[in-house]
Every structure is written in C-alpha cells, then in structure tokens.
Amino acid sequence: MDEDENINIKDVEETNDTNKDERRGEKRIIDKAQLLKRTQSEIDNRIPRASTDLITPLPISFSEAGENLEGLLKKNKEWANAITAQVPGFFANHAKGQKPKIVWFGCSDSRVPAETIVQLGPGEIFVHRNIANQFNHTDLNSLSVLQYAVDHLKVEHIIVCGHTGCGGVLASLSNGQHGLVDHWLRNIKDVYYANKPKIDMLSEEDRVNELVKFNVVQQVYNISATNIVQNVWEHGGKLEVHGWVYDLGTGLIEDLQINLKNAKDLRDQIFKVQYEQT
C-alpha cells in the first residue's frame, strides 16, 4: 500500500469518526430535548394550576387545619403565596375591580360552594346565598344583590342553584315548628301546594328532591318577574336566567333546562312589566 492510499484511508477513518461524533452530538441534543419535554410534562402534571387546584383546592377539613382560626390564617397565607408564585400580580389586578359575568343565587349549605363546584376562581361569580336559595320580592337583600349585579356589574347570566337533600326544603314539607326560619320557608310550602299531586306520588327522599327542583324553577320565575331583569330585556341587553340543581351524592350539576332570555319566556304575561311607548 502506497503513501497516497494510507492518506485516503486515514481521511476516510477521520471522516467516519467525525460523522459518528456528529451523530452522537445530534443524539445528545435530541435526548436532551426529549428529556426537557418529558421533564416539563412531569412538572405540568405535578404542579397544580392556579385556575384549579390552588384557587379551588381539594377538600380540606377544619380538623386538618388544626381546628383553630390560626390554622385557617396559615392556610390563607400558603394559598396567597402559592397563587402569587404562579401568577404574579394576580391579587393586585383583582384589587382594581371585578367584572363577573355570573350572579349566583344559591343555598347557604356549606357543601355547595359556588366557585368550587364549577371550578372558577375569585372574581368570576357574584354570589348570594340564603336558606333554600330563595328569591322573595319582599327581601331587600336579594333584590339589592340582583340590582347591583345587573345594573352595575353588567352580568349576563343569573343562576339559581338548589341542591339535593336540602334541609330547608325538607323542613317546609313538615308540620313541625323550626323557629324563625319557618317564616322564610313559607313560600316553599306554596310551591309544594301548587305541585302537590306530582310530589306526593313519590317516595320521601324523592319528594324532597322533586320539590327542590320545583323550588328552583319558582325562583327563576321570581327573578325574571322583576323590573330589574326586564329593564335589561326591554333595552335589548343580554341577560339569561337559569335553573340548576347540585347533587350532593355525585358532585354533578343538573341543568333543569329552564333558561329565560326575554319577557316572552315568563310563566305568564301577567308578570310582564308594562313600559310606556316613547
């Protein structure tokens, strides 16, 4: 073998070595990219997002928080720090004002927190809760909440949400005395009376849950009968009233398919507010 052949062979070997190094380098780059992608995916799956786990956390009992108010304050600090770490400026932006699209009329029952069950965070729902999610036309509290939500916050959706096994509804089906709350629940007895044949044919548990639904429907119509809501409809604004029921046993919400969007949807036109022609 002459000198030229030795040189050529050497060149080929060096070229092959270079190609191997380049391929190894490319493989390392690919491996690194895959590792980064896998690591990021693991991080994404491991770290709770501000829109879910941190803003609406998994259930924690009062006993787990130490059964004292200091424990709650500690949890609050942990929550605020976690949100700020993930979404810098979150609280500063929220302090500037609120622009919710929803006002929620629900029951005071501790098992039905509005934001948690629909997985929304602070600033997304304007909430009013009372015993058995009532909307009475003589209740200035409920009326004030509705008026502020509709006229000032410009919400587009009003949700009345009842829940299965409601204690207030159960009490309204009895003849016993329960105290001051009996006066508050008096209207539910009227709802029962109006739907008595459909309710009485059911078992006791089903009677309660059926009356829960009838009660929600009644409150939807009560809200829609106000001039607060009808003023928006009269001027062509977007405002819908919905009826839901939350199932305590499954955590799921049933849409009762009652969605009022204008005065034509009222139960009867006797509830329509008359407007002067201009």
UniProtKB/TrEMBL annotation:
Keywords: Lyase, Metal-binding, Zinc. GO terms for molecular function: carbonate dehydratase activity; zinc ion binding. This is Carbonic anhydrase. InterPro entries: Carbonic_anhydrase, Carbonic_anhydrase_CS, Carbonic_anhydrase_sf. Pfam families: Pro_CA. Belongs to the beta-class carbonic anhydrase family. Transmembrane segments: none annotated. Residues 7-26 have a biased composition (Basic and acidic residues). Residues 1-26 are annotated as: Disordered. One of its GO terms (biological process) is carbon utilization. The keyword Zinc applies. It comes from the Eukaryota. The lineage of its organism: Eukaryota, Fungi, Fungi incertae sedis, Mucoromycota, Glomeromycotina. It catalyses: hydrogencarbonate + H(+) = CO2 + H2O. Reversible hydration of carbon dioxide. Its cofactor is Zn(2+). Its EC number is 4.2.1.1.
